[in-house]
Structures are given as structure tokens and as C-alpha cells.
Write a structure and sequence with these properties.
Elements: H1 4-12, E1 22-26, H2 41-47, E2 55-57, E3 63-65, E4 68-75, E5 78-83, H3 97-106, E6 124-131, E7 134-139, H4 146-150, H5 166-170, E8 181-187, E9 191-196, E10 209-214, H6 218-227, E11 232-233, H7 238-245, E12 250-265, E13 275-276, H8 291-299, H9 303-310, E14 315-317, H10 340-349, E15 357-363, H11 370-383, E16 387-394, H12 396-404, E17 410-416, H13 423-430, H14 450-460, H15 465-481, E18 486-498, E19 501-503, E20 516-518
Parallel strand pairs: 1-10, 1-11, 15-16, 15-17
Antiparallel strand pairs: 2-3, 4-5, 5-7, 6-7, 8-9, 9-10, 11-18, 12-17, 12-18, 13-15, 14-18, 19-20
Helix pairs in contact: 8-10, 14-15
Length: 520
Amino acid sequence: MFRIAAFATLLMAVTAAHATDITIGRATEQNALDPLFSDLGNDVSTAENMFDSLIRFDAKLQIQPALAVSWTLTDPLTWEIELRPNVKFHDGATFTAADVAYSLKRARNVPNSPGPLSSFVRSVKETEIVNPHTIRVHTDTPTPLLMDMIGRIPIIPAALGPQVTTEDFNAGRAMIGTGAYRFKSHLPGDRVVMEANPDYWGGKPEFGTVTIRFLANPAARSAALLSGSVDVIEQIPPSDIGVFQNRQDVTLFSAVSTRVVYIAMDQGRDDSPFITDRDGKPLPKNPLKDPRVRLALSKMINRAAITERVLAGAGEPSGQLVPEGMGGYDPTLAPMALDLEGARKLLTEAGYASGFGLTIHGSNNRFPNDSQLAQALGQMFTRGGLKVNGVEVLPYNVYAPSATQRKFSVFHFSYGSIASSSLNGLIGVLATFDAAAGTGSLNRARYSNKQFDGMLAQAAAEFDEAKRNKLLADATRIAMEDGAILPLYWQKLYWAARKGFMVDPDRGEATSVHFVHPAR
């Protein structure tokens, strides 16, 4: 049974007056208010204001305790987690280990997710409630980075029961977390409004009312900031950076993120929906299943031109999933160089000397100049000898589910690594898709390589950090040399704030109230 009546009463209560309210302008709306629906950045940036997890990553991606205060490996397959006492849900109920067990179980299978959380709980065999503030997690295999994984799962009350649906959250009925802010209202396509949680375990929230407005158009976001209708905006377009730098009433903040933008190529079926011959007719087999073709596409891309011209310097060319400083980074994996002659040679070897036809798909509001990126890729593939039948871009909340449903053939996407190493990203984006095992949950292209999977499995079970990172780097090299995906660049992100507000730039790219503060 939902505790709806008690929750509704709380929502109507008047909290103590706060000095400051805030309105944040975001580029992309969440796919759902359900905190377990998706791990995509736009969903996380909304959910983490209202729902806590066992751990929290700060702006520099260092782990901080949240609902868990400590965790201990008692044997290779067992973790004992001590939970924070005296934590209340927004409806007044006490947070306990039962809520953790329930949330980890529900995360395994939330229908229609464009970014499932199932990979984070893939190794959890069972949970054991020791007492209200202690839970043991038993795993199928040794999992050294378990807290990097399950620690990110938002915690919801077990009292919601197995019948709770994503629609219950979207309608506000189930919006019960332990976070600093509690749900107040939602106008789809426009805004989410939250208010301070007076009983928050972390102390008095810095703002009274938080409004998140969704402004997909970059010019509209900039105009809203300059007019004062919003206080903070994200994803400053490269063309506006200079404008904001020269104003006294606005402060610009930036960070090089861990998000890699990449091209995914449909490799899991013989008949790919947007692949043709040069005359637009279906091909007897899918050329993207051939690694030579995938690497040929990579050689057609001028990554330096993308970062310098399309992004005006707001990016760094990439040749792998994670940047320097994260576990599993391989310093010898340089970005693929532009090599049209080499691309033609590979296409000829693969039997496509005259090229073939394709359509490029992309988002138009997920990251700065993403639609321009799709257009630039189309021009580069055309110069490389391919027939580009079209370039189609869509709003991210339409685009991401479509990509997950495998409606595209060649498309750009991105992954932000919010962890200590590349492990989660490799398992989610590149491991062979297996819904039961929880691997490949973000593998929209259905890449599969047994050698890669084997190396990754070894890395996931290795407790020695240096050995684990070496295995991750080796696995990454296998995938990159196979053209599993085509990394393009890591993003450099910009936020802007009006006078009176400051932003702690998050390398994980979240634009949530956790990283925004009144100016001191």
C-alpha cells in the first residue's frame, strides 16, 4: 500500500522560510520521474535531488558516504554495509535495510528503460537483512567494485511494494525519497518543482524551492539567464561562451567531463534498417558487422576538426571510453587519425569498394552542438566515399528510447563514467547483451566479442587494483581495435550562473542542485 495520504499531508505543510529559491534551466527533460527508470544523465540530474543512494560522487568523482556510512568485504562473495541511522523518508517513515533490499531488487527490471540500471546489480545474488541498519549483499562472483555499482542505485521505500509502476512516479503518487528536496509538482515538457526537506539527514538544504525548467533551445536558455527568469543554465553553446565571459552579472564555470561522445554501429542483425547500397536498395548483408568497415568509418572522421570547429574547443579527441586519470585508461590508445586512403583500402578489402548508403541519427538537445555533430559526420562520411542518404536528429527524450529499441543503424551517443574505473562503462556499453546476466544493458549496437567478454570478466573479479586496471586496458584495446564503437571526443562542459549563485562543475555532468550554491 502506498503511504499517499501521509505524503500528501506533508506536501501541503509549510516549511520554515528560506532565504533563497532557485530556478535551473536544463537542456533535456527526464524520461521519467521514476528514479530507477534510467541511468541516463537527464534522469539522474532530476532524481538525485529527491532520492539518495548508498554513496554519492562529489564534483571530482570521489566517493562520499550517503545512506551507507561504511562497507566491509567479509569474504570474496559477501559485503556488509552499515546504513545511516535516523534517516526519514519524505512521508515520515524510517529508512531501513529493507528499503535497500527492495530497491536493489526493483532495479533489475524496470520496463521500457532507455538506460537500464540492471548492470549495476548484475552480480548481486541475494541480500540479507542483519538488522534495520545493516545489510549483507551476497554476490555470484567476486566483485571488488560492488559499491561503485550498487552504491549508485536510488533508494525508494519498500512499502511501495512490487506493484509500483513508473506511471505512479510520473503522477507524483510514489515520489517518496530521503533526499534534500521533496517533490511538489511536475508539468511535463516544462518544469519540475521541489521544496526543501526540513528533516533532511544532511542538514538544512540551501534553497527553499527548487524549480527545474526544461529549455531545449540553447538561445532560449541563454536568454532566460540574462533576463533573470532562471538563475543557472547548463550546456552553454560554444557561440555564447565569449558573451558570458565578458559580462559582470554572469559567471561562467567549466569542467572537462568523463563523458565520451561516440558513434555506435548496428552489428547485431543482418538487415539493418538504414543501410542500403548506393542506389538506396537493401543490401544482402549488413556491412557494419565487418570490423574492417567499422574501422574504415573511423578513419573517415576528422576528430580534431570536430573539437576545434564544431565545438569551438569544448572537447578533447578520444580513442577510448575513459579519460586519463581513471582506472583502465590506456595511454597508448590514441584517437584514430584521419586517413581517407586507409579507409578506402579497408572498404575494398571488405568488398565495398564503391561504398554503401547509410543514414546518420543523432540527438539535437543532449549536449552542445549535437545536431551540428551529426551534420559534420555526414559530410565526413560523404568525403570518405559513402552515400549518406540522410541525417536525422531528434529530441533526446525521443531519441534515447529509439536508440535503445534499436531503430537506428549508425548513430552518435555518449557515456559518462561516474566511477573509479572504466569497468561499469565497458560492461554496460560493450559487453555482450544478456538481459539475465545484466551485461550490455547500454549496448545498443549489440557488439559482441568473446575475447573481450572474457578479459572483462577477469577484470571484474580482480581485487588487486593495478592488475584490474591492466585487464581493463587490455579489454579496451580489444574492443577499440575491433571497431566496437568509434570514440569521438570527451566533452568540456560549461555552466553559467547569475550573480548570487555559484556552480561546482561536476565531471559527471550532473546539473542538479547538489552542485549549485548561493554565492559566498
